Amino acid sequence: MTETLRTFRSWLMELSSWERALFLPLLIGLFAYLFWQGTIGIFNHFFILVHTRTISDFFTSFVCTRRPYSVGELKLGDYVYFSYRGERQYPQYGVANGELLVKIVAALPGMKVKVDDRYVYINDQIRGAVLHTDRKGNPVDYFHYDGSVPSGKVFVMAPHPRSFDSRYWGFVDESWGLYKCWPLPLSDR
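Below the sequence we write its predicted structure tokens.
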């Protein structure tokens, strides 16, 4: 290695001053470009950038893993990205099979969830309201439930009161693919 560096240095010294003036910035630029491409390539190998489309989410851009997580690896409050595959379809709200959503884990397996005609309770504490109409006044059905979160599923919500989430369409199954996310700073609306 040191012999290679000596050879390169002697070759560099043989160049005229204007050749060195051209060569060094090109060399530095090439190394900077390769470093940048390598960094981006490594990032893209492990992460994906996700941008939400709805106005109900507090954050609109997230960095998400490319590795799916099991329900057992998640904690309350984690942001998760998943592909909706539920029985109910709500294309008018961006919730139909294949839609990519980001929500917050509000309840894990074994936790008590109750969704009645007014509120969502998690472990007997009110966590949000249930709305019966959308912004246009159209009726919206909600998820009627009173029991524990089943194994392999999570209950997700978002902070906006009009978020279309588990209180309307039910649990997110681990088979939908749960990818952990982190909101990007300054991406809130």
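The chain has two domains: 2-46, 52-183.
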